[in-house]
Each structure stands twice: as C-alpha cells, then as structure tokens.
Request: fold
Amino acid sequence: MEQVPYRPTRLQNGYVRQLAAGFLVAGVFASLAGCSTTDEIRLQSMGSFFVGGREAEVSGKPVKEMLLTPGGAPVKVNPNGTYQVEQAYVQYFIPAQQRGQLPLLLWHGGALTGAEYETTPDGREGWLNWFVRHGWAVYNADAVERGRAGWAMYPDIFTSDPVFVTKGDPFERFRIGAGPGSYNKDPAKARLLPGSQFPLEGYDNFTKQIVPRWTTTDAAILKAYIALVDKVCPCVVLAHSQAGQFGYRAAQARPDKIKALVLVEPSAQGDPQLAGALRDMPLVSIYGDFIAQDARWPTIKANNMKFYETLRAAGGHPEVINLPEIGIHGNGHMMMMEKNNQQIADVINNWLKEKGLYR
Reply:
C-alpha cells in the first residue's frame, strides 16, 4: 500500500492560514519601512510529531527528597520505573503549491539538531525555508538524544557518557578555520581558511546550537529514522555528516520508500553486504572545499568512495558533486549555513530535477 505524507488536522490548517496571513501583513509593513523582504511562503499546513521510541525500565536507584522549585515544598523523587526513550522529533512544513514530487526529509549531523537547516548563524534563510519556498514538503528532524527528542539517563539507559564539544572544536574540525590552533575568541585573530564562505560574524551564534551527543545510540537513531520513513514516505532523504550512515542504512532497509538519497559530506557509510538494495536508487554525495589540506577529511571521503566501489559492483550508479570542480569555492563542512548556501541548495534541487523528482 502506498504511503502518503503525514496530514495535519483541520484545526492545524486553520491556524496555519491565520499565521500565514500574519506573515503577509508583516511583510507589507517591512516593505513600507524600507526593509527588504523575500517572497512570501504560502503553507497548506505545518506541525510536528514524535516518532519511534520505546519503554525502558530503571530499578535499584535510591529515592531522593528534593526541592524542585525555590520556595516550594520538598518532594520525594523516585527514579525507578518506566521511561519513554529513543523517540525522534519531527517538524513539517507543507507548501500550498508543491513542486517536489515527494516529501524531503532533512537529517542533521553529529552534535547538532534540525536547527542546522532552519536559519544561518548570521540570520539568513536556511535550507528548510529555501526548499519549502521552492515547493518541497519538508520534514525536519531532531534525532534520538538531540534537541526536542530528548535524551535518557546514562549509563542506565544510554550505555555511555555524552560527548561534549568545546567552542573552538567546530571551527577547527569542520573546515572553517585553518586546522588546529586556528580558533580564537577574538574574530580578528581567528584564522579562517582562505576564501571561506562561513559567516565569521555568526560563529558564536552557531556554537549555541551545539548539543551533547552519544557514541552508543546509533541503532536507536536508525530505528527512529526508519519509523519516520514508514510514516511519511515515499520520500527523498537529505542527510548531513553523521546522518550519512543513517541515510544509507535506512535506504537499504526501505529501498521501496526512499526514492533518492542526497548525502552532504557523509562521515560514515552503509552496510556493504546490502549494497544491492541501493542498485536502482539515485544517490549523490556532495563535497565542499579544503578537503585535500585537512588532516581527517581525505580519509573520510576515501572511505565513502570505497563504499561507492561496492555499490557500483552491485549494479548501482552513485554520483559525486565536488563543489570546487563546478566552480563553487570556499565551502567547508557546514555548507548549509555558509554565505552561498542558497547556491548549493540550487545545485541539490537541480540534481533532484534531473532525476524526475521536481517539476
């Protein structure tokens, strides 16, 4: 039976019409005030839901008496019992006029949430808005353990401690700055890679969306993503960095439901034993600039190209878009946030159009 996108209630539709009307009025006043405004976005519906997850039992923990609110009465907190864990959070935006043939699912990278697609750190339009504006029904997720999906007790439920990221780490590791030691709290002393498209003035704002991540939750993340695919697909999946492996593996698990896979600098691969499942699937990996001079990214990219060899041997036709080779320069790992992010979104959109998925 064919799956259809998640449909909101009539009440939600009415709310969206009121909200959209408010946005249109705000746009008129912005124009009258001399401020530039982009074309309106007309929505059929918007909303959110949780998907996946399981119940987990915790026992043997001591009961504590705590004061939960200043000035309140003490309460006994018993941590033993049943917990709801490992669900994903999804926010959707359905445009009034759809041009994408299928829903587009956005899956974020490590130590990040769906916020990476929403707005650039310097306040410009993110990929979420761009794709909705161009007629795609977009489903933007916070994976298990991230953002509004929430995380669980460790080591009771999650079996390892979380990994926390320092403020300078993304600057040096995501090919924004020129490697180790390039970050400095003073922007004038920070060493950007030559020609970098990252908006340096927004870097502090970018680090505010960094969240803890775990290294032992991959199976739970994939399970929730597959539950999302089962709920709203057939679809296209756009996955960034850590989510590359989830895009591959979800597509291998549901090749009848994921109709195309766009991988933005994937950091891990799929299951070589199931390569044949991707034989007929349009699939592309997109890479930015500065890879050759980086300490890690030549190996990460080579691993993906080795997986490509396995896909080709199984009859697949995976593609690669190296942005510098098509004349787009200065992009690091966070290309969806960079100054030319809309140019790259257009590259992705054109590829999907070539595959017959956009009209």
Remarks:
- The longest strand covers residues 43-58.
- The two ends are 25 Å apart (CA to CA).
- Helices lie at 10-32, 127-133, 169-173, 203-207, 218-232, 243-253, 297-313, 341-354.
- Confidence is low (pLDDT under 50) at residues 9-37.
